[in-house]
Amino acid sequence: MAENKIPPVGLGLWKISKDQCADVVYQAIKVGYRHLDSACDYGNEVEVGQGIAQAIKEGICKREELWVTSKLWNTYHKKEHVKLALEKTLADLNLDYLDSYLIHFPIAQPFVPFEQRYPPEWLFEPESENASMLTAPVPLYETWQAMEALVEDGLVKEIGVCNYNAGLLNDLMSYAKIKPSALQIESHPYLTQEKLIRLAKGYGISVTTFSPLGALSYLELQMADALESVLTQNVVIAAAKRVDRTPAQVVLRWGVQRGCAIIPKSTKLARLKENIALFDFELSEHEMEAISSLNQNRRFNDPGEFCEAAFNTFYPIYD
Predict the structure, then answer these.
(1) CA–CA separation, 193 and 198 (whole Å)
(2) Contact 112, 120 (CB under 8 A)
(3) Residue pLDDT, tens place only, 39-86
(4) 42 assigned to active site
(5) CATH class of the 11-225+259-277+301-311 domain in this structure
(6) What ranges do the domains of the chain cover?
C-alpha cells in the first residue's frame, strides 16, 4: 500500500439514508471526491461499499486513489472486540483495508454482539422502558493497543482519534507506540478550536473537521437553531461577494485554508460539486481573521448535552 495523503475535502457520510447512500457515494467519486468519511455508527457502510464498487468497476478511480476512513464504535473498545469491529466494517465496505481507522468517541460502552444489534448505537437495551446509555470500564490505553495491532496486521494504513480534547491527546502521545496520524473534531467559525488544532499539528497529527458549516448539520436533529447559521454573518457575505462564491464555499474555504481537511455532507449533486470547488480562489488574511473572530465556542455535537437529552445519561467529555 503506497503512501497517501488525506485529500482536503471529503464526503461526510453521517445521516445519509441507506436508499440514497450508494448513489451519493458513486456520484461524489464521479465528480472528483477521493476522501470518504464513514463509520459503523452511520449504519450505511454496506451502501457506501456498493457506491465505491460501482465507481471502481466503471474505471472512475482505483481503490488506491481513494482515502476511506471509518471509526470504531463505543461498544467495541475492549481489546478482543477491536479487530472484530474492523473486520465487520471491512466486510460491509467490501474492502481489504482502510486508509484510516479512528476511535469514534473517548467513551467505552458494554459490548453488543453483531447478531443482537448492528450498529448498536447508544442505548444498551433500547426496547426497555427505562432505556439508557451505559458505560464500561475500558481504558483508552487498551483500545489504542488493539488499534496498533490493526496497523501491524496490514488491515489499516493509519489510526487516529475523534472527539479527543487536549488532555487526552497529550496522554495518548505519551504511550502510543504507533502515533495517531489523524484527529477528527467538530470545528467551524463558531467553534474554531485553535489551541487543540495547534497542539495536534505540533505533534505532526493531521486534523479533519466535521460539521464545517456548523449549525446546518444539526437543524434536522433539533440540536441547533436556524438563527445560528454562520452563513448569514456579514463578514461571510462580504467575502462571498468579493470572491464571487457562495457563503457556504467561503466557510468551507476558511476550513481548508487554515490547514485542516473538511468533510461536508450533501446528497444533492449540485451541492456536492459546490462543496469541492474551493481551490480556484483564496480568502485574504483579513477575511480569515474576521471569520475566525466569529468564534463563540459553540459546540453542536456535545455528549454532555445530547447523552442526557436523548439517552437519559449525563456524560460530558468536554469541560
Answers:
(1) 9
(2) yes
(3) 999 999 999 999 999 999 999 999 999 999 999 999 999 999 999 999
(4) yes
(5) alpha beta
(6) 11-225+259-277+301-311
